[in-house]
Specification:
Helix content is 82%, strand content 0%. With 344 residues, the protein is mostly helical.
Length: 344
């Protein structure tokens, strides 16, 4: 590849990343505008009153739980460097994690590259080694999220089932029974398995399919690599992972205590808040607009009104983002000064 074509490729990639940023940010701004447009003056006043009536001590506790979750994530990430012959300091790994979240508010996935760059500056760890640990960590996060979704579904099956049926029945006159849905699901899975066995070898000749298989294989190998950390580190890695997701769920449980209308809701509601909120974070840039609305939808399953639900969502989202912005910016300054010092 010539230098000219390489420059063109980089230029196209930058334009594509900027377009992605505009799209995700646009979705968030649209949701904020759309819901504000929908609200009557009375509804806006009710939401504002819910904000004023919130118990702000619980909001501060949400911030604390968020910091602890990020700190444990830094401890977990640090374990992955041991087989590579590096033991970065907790301060630098925590700072790199916070810069990651800050950068991701601007551009999706930019933070993953930045946190590797921060460790190169502070710990002299090569980028290629750090990137490998980030990929492994992300793969395990996908697995953990799948486990949390499954547990949440099992825990919330009856409530979610009733909520979905009530919502869908307003749009469709007839709905299939759960038995019919389950039967169709089993048939489709069986059909997929048979087709996979029959055509797998032939499909490998097609590049897109081969890439997908390679990606899945790489994911499996990445997760399995955690087992090579050693018994103690592997157990610690799993314990840290469980603690991180428990703290994410705890954030929803804590914010429920901030409002008299929601303080009686328990762990199952916090599970749903986390699941719905996670979808909101995927849809728009940093969850702007979508996260609070989906948290409201989550608590509406339990009969919580729009004013309290939206206030709950905005406070939960805002508390998490304040932590990211304040600590992330502080560490960004710290790493910048460190880089300047290293050049002297």
């Amino acid at each position: 590849m010539t230098s000219h074509s390489t420059a063109d490729h980089k230029s196209r990639k930058k334009i594509l990343n900027f377009l992605k940023f505009l799209i995700f940010l646009g979705i968030g701004v649209f949701f904020v505008y759309w819901f504000l447009l929908k609200l009557s003056p009375e509804q806006k006043d009710a939401i504002w009153q819910s904000f004023l009536g919130a118990r702000w001590g619980w909001v501060a506790l949400v911030m604390l739980s968020s910091v602890v979750a990020h700190f444990i994530r830094a401890l977990r990430w640090r374990l992955l460097f041991k087989p590579l012959g590096h033991i970065p300091s907790v301060n630098n790994t925590f700072g790199a994690i916070m810069v990651t979240y800050l950068a991701n508010l601007a551009f999706p996935r930019l933070g993953e590259v930045m946190r590797c760059a921060m460790l190169r500056t502070s710990e002299k760890i090569p980028m290629e080694k750090s990137i490998g640990t980030v990929v492994t960590e992300r793969l395990f996060d996908v697995l953990m999220f799948a486990v949390v979704v499954l547990l949440g579904f099992l825990l919330m099956f009856n409530s979610v089932k009733d909520f979905l049926y009530d919502s869908l029945s307003q749009k469709f006159s007839t709905l299939p029974t759960l038995a019919a849905i389950a039967t169709v699901g089993v048939i489709l899975l069986a059909l997929f398995f048979v087709l996979f066995k029959l055509f797998h070898e032939k499909l490998l000749k097609f590049k897109p399919y081969k890439k997908i298989v390679g990606l899945i294989s790489g994911c499996v190998e990445g997760v399995k690599s955690i087992l090579h950390l050693g018994p103690k580190s592997t157990i610690l890695f799993v314990v840290y992972s469980i603690a991180i997701y428990l703290l994410y769920i705890a954030g929803g449980l804590i914010i429920l205590q901030a409002f008299s209308d929601t303080e009686g809701l328990g762990v199952s509601a916090a599970f749903v808040i986390y699941l719905f909120g996670s979808v909101g974070m995927m849809i728009s840039q940093g969850g702007l607009g979508t996260y609070p609305v989906l948290v409201w939808q989550a608590v509406s399953i339990y009969g919580i009104g729009e004013a309290t639900g939206l206030a709950c969502g905005w406070l939960l989202w805002g508390a998490q983002q304040v932590i990211v912005i304040v600590i992330g910016l502080s560490y960004l300054v710290y790493f910048s000064l460190l880089k300047k010092e290293n050049k002297l």
